[in-house]
Amino acid sequence: MLRTVTVETGKLKGLIGKDPRVTVFRGVPYAKPPVGELRWKAPQPAEPWEGVRKCYEYAPIPMMRFHPGMDDAFYTKELNPTAAEYDMSEDCLYLNIFSPAETTEDNLPVFCYIHGGGLQDGYNYEVEFDGERLARRGVIVVMVAYRLGLFGFLAHPEITKETPEGEVISNFGLQDQSAAIHWIYRNIRAFGGDPSRITICGQSAGSSSVQAQLCSPMNKGLIAGAICQSSVSMTFGEEAGFGRYKSLREAEEQGVQFFKDAGVGSLAEARAMDARELEDRLIAVSPKGSMFGLSFGICVDGKLVTQSLGDSYYNADLPAVPMMVGHCQGEATGGMFARRSPTLQELKEFAEIYGDRKEEFLAVTGAKNDEDVKALYAGPMNRMIGGSIGFCELRSETAPVYYFVFDHDIPGDDAGSFHGSDLWFMFDSLANSWRPFEGKHYDLARQVASYWVNFVKCGNPNGDGTDYNGNPLPEWKAFRHDEKNAIRFLDAATPVVLQEDPVIEFRLDFGKKRFRK
After folding, report:
1. CATH of domain 4-328
2. Which contiguous run of DSSP H or E holds residue 403?
3. What is the pLDDT of residues 60-94, one digit of tens each?
4. Gap between the Cα atoms of 254 and 154, Å rounded
5. Strand pairing of 108-114 and 193-203?
6. Does the model's pTM come out above 0.85?
């Protein structure tokens, strides 16, 4: 097996995995530590080293507002039961790589995973992430770390002023992800990988990141496929702000206001401050009760991010590579994404946005009372459900797209198919969980992980029609306008065909008229 490899900056030595047919490389540097004068600057190439670098330990988790694993919140028990013992640092630009290759000539496909957390939280070795379980199926798994929140997405006029002409302004976390993808492309052969078969995958904010990277001209020719879990940031043009990135000016204004509220006089002063002090000041000025506090996110910088996703999607301004998209049923109708359904009167007020098509929209919905409206917002007007189906309609015009819904039974409490529950199955990592999973769950995880790995291998989740153990997989057909195929992950993978939905068709038509050039 490949236990020692040579990359562009030196030699790396990995560890034998739990399965001796996999080598694990932890803490592989893909950029210089973004500290000191490199805080709020583009990622710089990693420094070369002498001798053999032992990649045995995970790197620190990125700086964030709160150290995960320090409370009794739902996700502490679920995803971060050991996180309290991890170091946290701005020095976080490292990869974890899991390779089953025997030689550098194996040319294995590459699964590049970008973690979620609202772009404010998370790290690339949470307990549900088991790269080894996927790698043993014949792919190289790369888990990406990147700067978050204040350190990853702050914009400010002083940052803009000091950025050399033609370089990316702000979006430092996205720049990190892109730098990692480029690093993988240049170096993955050393691990036995094929740089022409890099599939990027992410969940939640990782999904948003995947979409931004796929749409970016800076990654042209590097990405062979994409998987978006929970879910695609689809817009129909009538939702207030959804699917829209901030402009650089708006992001700069947010940065100026933060400095003012936090008592920071200048960029130089902010760079000289301790990272924890800055995070504490962020906490102090954040709105109370907000999930991510005062959050910093993606803006249109003009180079890495050239336009909002609606413009990209409706005008097919992204590579025509195969995609998988979907969500958990529970998060679509409850949990952290639950929204109060409008009343019938509020729906009528919302319909004003359609102008002279208002009555047409209301007729299409068929809503006659508040209960009808509630059902509408659990279906075609739902951000997850309607958004995913609408995206598939657009995407299927130019490239294969596969739609899924996780609607599985999750034991241990009444959380249902909550946000992130799919990760246990796609990483086939149920044994890492506290939950009392049973045989049927392990059977489903084997199917789900097989679909994901098949997609990475050949751009089609069906592969040769079997799972890792050679058992038949139910056929998962691509979504088409005239045959809206999907797969529901219940006790087992269950293919379904969705019915035509006139509400989604209406919304798509509205979006096309707004966005198409």
Report:
1. 3.40.50.1820
2. strand 401-406
3. 999 999 999 999 889 999 999 999 999 999 999 99
4. 8
5. parallel
6. yes
